[in-house]
Design a protein that fits this description.
Blueprint: H1 3-34, H2 43-54, H3 57-90, H4 92-107, H5 110-120, H6 126-148, H7 152-160, H8 165-203, H9 209-218, H10 222-256
Helix pairs in contact: 2-10, 3-4, 3-6, 3-8, 4-6, 5-6, 5-8, 6-8, 8-9, 8-10, 9-10
């Protein structure tokens, strides 16, 4: 790595750090102007609440329960999107039948899905169901775009030389499809977290992050509200980081093959 590239990275990180410090200062000044912690907690109060939450064993159980439910919904959406996109590419009827459902899932507000889900299923699995409903159309649409954008000449060449379907999938389809899958899955995962937690706030299932958010909202514990928000962001970023690593490894293996 050349010195100029190193300096550029250092300058970029310093600029980001200064931007964060600037907005923390703005936040602190705004809290001082408001003058009421229950309306707008200061960064120091939020930091204190965050440390207090991290010292409680129940915090980790709540975070684990919500994380597992969101990931269950996301992985279910991923698996179904992979299966249906493959079928839709092969059978036009499947593509035609799925299109209205995908359009509806993208257009209908999350709150409408949540209210319907509360009527139909237990609130315990509410966040998983909503994460599935929100994540599926994003992944499916991206996969369909990737399948549509495949190099037709490579497909024709594989047919001419009678390449086996498994090799065709491994050597031709996957390397072209993985970038679309990566983009769709990462976008869907972020949306699954947002919609899943929002569903928990409405349904208030026991032992969930949404229940904690609803509690601090009712009691005007603004510092705890921000602290739980920080935890949600960190969990979402951690899941996204792990997914990115898995997908990048998959892309590298596909290219090497």
């Amino acid at each position: 790595m050349t010195p100029s590239i190193t300096r550029t990275k250092i300058n970029s990180r310093a600029a980001r750090l200064l931007a964060v410090l600037f907005w923390l200062l703005v936040w602190q000044l705004a809290a001082l102007l408001v003058g009421y912690e229950f309306l707008l907690a200061s960064p120091l109060s939020v930091l204190g609440s965050l440390f207090a939450l991290l010292l409680k064993g129940s915090t980790y159980l709540v975070a684990l329960h919500s994380t597992l439910r969101v990931l269950l919904g996301f992985l279910s959406a991923l698996m179904l999107a992979l299966a249906l996109s493959a079928l839709a590419t092969r059978f036009t009827l499947v593509k035609t039948l799925i299109a209205p459902l995908v359009a509806a899932a993208r257009a209908v507000p999350v709150s409408s899905f949540v209210i319907l889900a509360i009527i139909l299923v237990s609130t315990r699995w509410l966040s998983a169901l909503i994460a599935f409903v929100i994540g599926f159309p994003v992944i499916y649409t991206n996969l369909m775009e990737g399948l549509k954008a495949r190099d037709k000449k490579l497909q024709e060449m594989a047919q001419v030389f009678a390449v086996r379907p498994i090799l065709r999938l491994k050597l031709i389809t996957l390397p072209q499809l993985l970038p679309y899958l990566r983009a769709g899955a990462l976008t869907a995962l972020g949306l699954c977290w947002k919609s899943g937690v929002a569903a928990e706030v409405i349904g208030i299932p026991r032992g969930s992050i949404g229940e904690q958010l609803y509690s601090v909202k009712v009691n005007y514990y603004t510092a705890d509200l921000f602290a739980w928000t920080v935890i949600i962001v960190l969990l979402s970023l951690l899941c996204e980081r792990l997914l990115r690593l898995l997908l990048d490894r998959g892309m590298k293996k596909a290219v090497r093959a």
